[in-house]
UniProtKB/TrEMBL annotation:
The keyword Transcription regulation appears for this protein: yes
Keyword vocabulary terms for this entry: DNA-binding, Transcription, Transcription regulation
Protein name in the entry: GntR family transcriptional regulator
Native source organism of the sequence: Bailinhaonella thermotolerans
Upper classification of the organism: Bacteria, Bacillati, Actinomycetota, Actinomycetes, Streptosporangiales
Source species, domain of life: Bacteria
SUPFAM superfamilies: Winged helix' DNA-binding domain
Record-linked Pfam families: GntR (PF00392)
Amino acid sequence: MLLKLNLNDPRPLHEQVAGAIRRAIAEGSYPPGSRLPPARDLAGALGINANTVLRALRELRDEGVLEFRRGRGVTVMHQADHRSALLERIRGLLREAERYGYRREDVIKMIGELT
């Protein structure tokens, strides 16, 4: 996995790592059922603390993108590629809405008006 972080990005490192993993899954680098490299390996390749990578992995687990299995490592969940891509697009929408002065709640209300 070739992940890159933008040091000029104002987002916290764990969010950047999670975003990079989401993109790798959405682009097919890690299909459902595949294993990710260990957190220490990812951290070493990125030059960041392993706890930062673990925080990103836990975030993705909580979103239902990754699954932690004792003795088997971290694997990509089935349907994670679609969910991951959609979550990334939603985050982009929220960032853009924020630039225009809208809050998360405003965007949710707008979406509710569409359905």
